[in-house]
Amino acid sequence: MCVGSFRQSGNHPFRHTCSLLLHHWFCNLLSTHYLNDIMSLFRAVVRAPLRAGLLRSVAARPAAARMYSTHEELSDADFDAKWKAYFADETLDEHAIRRGLNDLFAHDLVPEPVILEQALRACRRVNDFSTCVRVFEGVKDKSPDDETYNYVVGQLKPVIEELQLTLPEELGFH
Question: Which residue spans adopt a coiled-coil conformation according to this UniProt entry (predicted)?
Answer without folding.
Answer: none
